[in-house]
Each structure stands twice: as C-alpha cells, then as structure tokens.
Amino acid sequence: MALTGVSMAVLTQAGYAEEQAEGENTFAIEEIVITAQRKAESLQEASISVDAVNGAKLLKKGIANAKDLNKSVPALTIADGGGATSAIFIRGVGNRTTSSYIDPAVAVSYDGVYMGRASAAAGSVFFDLERVEVLKGPQGTLYGRNATGGAINILPVKPSLDEMNGFLTAGYGNYDAFQMQGAINAPLSDTVALRVAGNYSKRDGFNKDGTSDEDTHGFRAQLLFQPNDNLSVRIGADYTKIGGVGPGSTYEGNYSSDGEGGYTLVPSGLDIDEGMNTEAGNAYRNTLLGAPAFDFFNDIQDDWYQDNKYYGVNAEINYTIDGGTFTIIPAWRRVDQDSKWGLPSFNSGWIQERDEQYSVEARFTSDSEGPLNYIVGGYFFNEEVEGNNTFNQEFVLPLQEYLQETTAWAAFGQLTYDVTDTFRVIGGIRYTDDKKDFDGLIENFITFCGGLPPSNVVPPASFATCAGNMPHYPTLDNPQQAFDWLHANGWVDPAITYTPGSVQVLPLLNGAGTILKTYEPVNDTYNNTKVTWRAAMEWDVSDDSMLYASFETGYRSGGFQLAEGIPTYEPEYIDAWTIGSKNRFLDGRLQLNAELFWWDYKDQQITYFTISNSALVSLTDNVGQATSKGADIDLIWAATENTIINAKVQYLDATYDDLHFFTASPRDNINCPYTYTGEIADGAEIKDFDCSGNQAIYSPKWSINLGIEQTFPIGDYNLIASVDTRWRDDQWGGFEQIEHEFIEAHFVTSADLTFEPVDGKWSVTAYIHNIEDTRHRATTQAAPTGQAVTVFGAPMTYGVRLSANF
C-alpha cells in the first residue's frame, strides 16, 4: 500500500494562478496533482472521489493531526475512542472500538506505507506535509483489505536537488498553546539531497481536569539519492511522541430506570468542560451506584496520562525503463503505547501495547503512451500486536493479555484502455490472502452483591447491605496482583489462591457479596482469501469536463476478540456504485465537481457494549446490511483576481437495514423496539432489539463547508483575509440512539488575517477558530457502568502565527 513520490501543484495564497492569454491577464484555478491511483494525475482527471488538502492549507486551518481533518472534509469523522485509538468514519462507514487489535475500516497510509492499527492515525507525523488525500469509498483494488470506508494518505514534502531552502513557523494562542515546526532542504551534491523537519506542539487541556490537552513532538529525516534520470532512491525515518493527559470526557448524567422497562437520563448538572477527574466530577461519581456490586463509586484513583511513541523507517526506489517505472517500497513501523484514560467512565483504562509491522510493495506502472496503460504489483504485510490491557470499571476488573500476528499478501492490477480519444474503460482486480494467529486471554474479576446470578438481583431495600462493603479494584495489570490486593485488604480468604486457567468463586469474608473470576482463552488461526475488483468508464465531454461511472468492491478482514465466549467475528463486504462529473468553466475560473454514490454493506462489523458470561463486554459482531447513498458537490470559484470562493456540500442517507442487538439488563438501554428471545442471561431474559432503519452513526444528512478568501494588495505587500464555516446536520454518536448520543446540528466558523510581502518570504497571521464558542458533542459513550459521558469539541481558540521562508 504505497504511493509514488511526486510533487503537487498547490493553490497560491489567493487561490489562483495568473496566466497570459492573448496579451491579457487572466486567472484560473491551479491544477492539483494527486497520486491516489499510484500515478501522478490531475485531480480533475481522476475518476475517483477524493479530497486533497495541501500543506499550506493544513497549516492555515490549524490542522495539526488526523482528527482535525474533520474541519476540511465533510465526509470524514475522526473521533476519540480511548487512549490512542481513533474511530474513523467516511460517509457513515467505519468502526468504533477500544480494542486496537481489531482492524480499522478506513486505511491510513503515511508516505505510501499502510499502517495497520487505527491508533496509527494519532501518531501520524502531521508537519511539513505536501498534502493529505482522503479517498471516499472502498479501495479494494489498489489498497486492498480494510479499506471498506476509504483511505487517508498522508504525504510529506520530499527532498529536492534544486536548492537549499526551508521554513520556520511558530505560533502562540489561548490555553497557553505553543506550536513550532520547520524544515530544511539541503542538496549535498548533484545527486544527493537531505530534508529534515521537526514539530513541537503543546497546549493546556480544554477540560478542568487537564484532559483534551496536547503535548506532541516529532522529527523526520529523508535522504534522496538520484544518480541519473532513471533511478531514484529515497530513505526516510520518523519519530513522534504524544504525551500529556490525553482526551477526556464529562458526565452528562446517569440513566435511571423509569419503572416501565425504559430509562430516563438524569442530568449531572456539571459544566461541559468539567471533565471527570475533578473535585466536582468525583463528587458526582460518588452519588452513582455501580452494578452488579450495588455500591457507590469512589473517586478516580489514577493520574491519567499518555506516553505513546511512534517511529518507522521506509524507502522508495523508482527505476524507469522504456515503457514504465518499477517502484519498490519496503517499510518497518512500530508503536509503543502506555496510557491511562477514562473516556467511557472507567476508573482507568490502562493500555500497554506494542505494535510492530513490516511491509513491502513492488509494482510496475506503464507510461502514458499508447491506448493501453496499466499497473501491476504485489504486496506483503506482517504485523505483531502484543498487549496487556486493563479496563478498570471499579467493581469489574477485566484483564487482557494477547499476541496477534497477521500475515497478508496480495497481487493486484489495474488497466486503462482508450477506446477513443475521449472515452476510456478501466478495470482492476486484487487477490488478497489473510492469515491471523491469535493467542490471548481475558480474566474478569466481577463483584456481586450477595450471591452469583441469578440470586444477585437484589431488591432496593437490600442495597444498604452492599454500599460500603464492596471492594473497589485498583488499576492492576495481572490476576496475581488482584489476588494479592484482595488478600492484603482482607476481602478474600488467604487460603484461596490464584489458579491460572480456571473459573473461581471467591466469597467475600464480610458475607456481603461474591467475586466471580472468569477465564476465557482464545488461541486460534483465521484464514481468508478474497478477490476484490473495480470497473469504471470515463468520457471527456470537452477539454474541461469529464463524466465517469464506476463499480467497486471492498472487504474488511474478520478476526478475534476477547469478549467472554464470543471469540470471533466474520469479514464485512461492501459494493459501491458511483456516477460523477468533473468540470472547469469560465476559462478555468470555476471548478465544479459532483458525484452520486450508492454503497451496499453486507455482514457489517460494529462494536458495542453487551452482556456475556456475567460480564459487560465490548463486542464486535456482524450485524447485517447497511446502505449509504447520497450526493457530493465541490465548488471552487476564482471570482476575481483577488477573490476565491469555495463550497463543499454532501447529502448522505446512511441507514442500518438489518441491525439487531441481543442483550439483557443492565445493558438494555437501547432506543429500539424489542422482543424477548426466551433465553436467560444472569437471571434476566435476553431481548432482541430491532434497530433496522436507524440512521448510521456519524452520518449527518447534510454537511456543508463554505469559505471565502480575499487578497488586498498594498504596494509590495498583501493583506489576506479568509473566513470559512462548516455546518453539520443532526447525527447520532452511538448505535443505541439514547438521549445523550444525539449530536445536534451546529456551525463552526473560523477566520484568519495574514500580512506578507508579495515574495512570500515571511508572514504574520492572526487566527480564530470556533467563533461561536460552542462545544458541541463530538464523541458519546453509553458507559458500561451506566453513565452518559461525552467528549465535547474544542472551544474558541485564537492566536498569532509567524512564518519565515528561506
């Protein structure tokens, strides 16, 4: 999964390029070159749905990480998932999980190297970038597995043999925000060039407990060797460290039974910027009963933190012969995670994980002469994910250890045939072979008031016998530590010792309750092969207009999970139909692209909390079919020599056509009709919740981005003012569609003012983001412990940025 390294023509500061035509000054929107289809081509000539954001625009919009891409791409949502895990959705297709060994649905690549974990997006080196490409829809031919929703390509600026140059940017803003990044390009000889870049970014948290902060630094070095026109070798190495407290959430309230089989949200009364781990947050937490112990929660015990490191080495070798170019891209990447966090109202989740991958892609791309052009190649990927994770829910202590090894290889090809000078047909196919070996186990310590199910269904009058008499687990990392703690604090008979590989019942010495220690190993191998393919056609209606239509398939790998008796899930599949048009009008001053799409999803994987083997678990399951259909319009208008107007509009109708949840109390807080299945779990009858027809999560009906940029020439200087706003329609942040998961429609508006000389040697920019100063819901959690917790978006931020180019 790699891209060739080519430069891109970027928009100028005012968004237009001056040209001479018949002795008169005209202006036109400059071409953007992308490599999303493994070749350099104009964005206007590619029959795919892709948003490309250049490096200057990323800096201007304050996009410092992958999550901030939400600002520029209406189809995209990247939400915090817990720790370093991110949930990435494109047009309602994605996955939401706190388990990093579960494959993402959107493929993220850095410098042409596919990164296997969703956490990799958090550590992408987001500085000194040439551009970011967001491909919408399945990419099963050129990108392969785990790209059912699309792909995100993060492409750094490459070394150049032309001249010594570089830049330095530094900025300061509210929340004590400081950011600095810079790069230097140094030709060392006629055939060797070095480019070095770095970044430092630090900001206080948006919440009172210090969460939702930023503390990141990174470094990248690339060496280019180009002895002749036919051969180029580029080697790169990068390192990023993410520290600080990490993302945080706030209690919106707690769901309480209404006595009629439903639940009512009782508001917490806390401010949305309170966070969980403050005096007020903990005081509220102390008022909540935790099942199945029926005791009140204690304060958060741990200091939350992130200490996550991302690094890698990759190379790109291009050799050109008559007829085309051979490209080889070998890579090694590693992620070391150590973080404590509490997003879903955990006392603390503790992630200790190592992700390491090796990959190589080799391909041949034919030249552009003749009616037939093609790409053929092969790909190999090997990955190990080793983790020791704890999800401390205070009265439930799940402890996970696992090692997953994935080996995948693929062969692919795509050809384009010019039937006429204006009509082309495209066909592509990919064969993928997946193998996963999983060796892991989960051991749960579950505290019940009274006896084990079903006798622990305690009447309200008996709660007093539990409150204050139940053990509140600390955040531990193995079962022996849990036993040692229970013995040292007098909860369990010292004669009962830890027995590996067994289920154990541990009566509390005070007689108030019972602890069930479960044991669930998963040791298995998964194999799957799949052929995915694409068929498309392109018709040049005129020199500046193209119509295209395509059909493409994609699939996401199945795999394993530690979910108490439900160890596997199956692959998911998607078929996508697309019809689009790309156009330039008014002598290149107006660009209008439009697209209609229809995606059919089968055996969709979703992740949600449910009950299994007496424990609340995060379960990934294949739940049926879904459909995403809609339209996408993208407009850029160079209205005058100094005025650029842009608009992006997406209409999306994404629904779950066949969505059922099977669960029982207390995880039956789902806003869908249900029937009883006749089965019993822990003394409660299992319900079949039929949520078919519900709107897919993170799928607003309308998404609109509008912007205008005006340049005011002042002698040898320019004053450049821009305003942009984005509007997202009503949407849901959770499958259950309960009250706090509803994300109301909202605007977010930003503005900036830049003063610079016409030669662009330096600039001073003042900026303000989220002028409305509204913190809308960004990520919602229906907590396994019963609380409604929400990650809110950023408040108003503002500051100044200084830049110098040399």
TrEMBL record:
Subcellular location: Cell outer membrane
Domain TonB-dependent receptor-like beta-barrel positions: 354-771
Gene Ontology CC terms: cell outer membrane
Alphabetical list of InterPro entries matching this protein: Beta-barrel_TonB, Beta-barrel_TonB_sf, Plug_dom, TonB-dep_rcpt-like
Database matches in SUPFAM superfamilies: Porins (SSF56935)
GO biological process terms on file: iron ion transport
Domain of life: Bacteria
Family of this protein: Belongs to the TonB-dependent receptor family.
Protein name: TonB-dependent receptor
Species of provenance: Emcibacter nanhaiensis
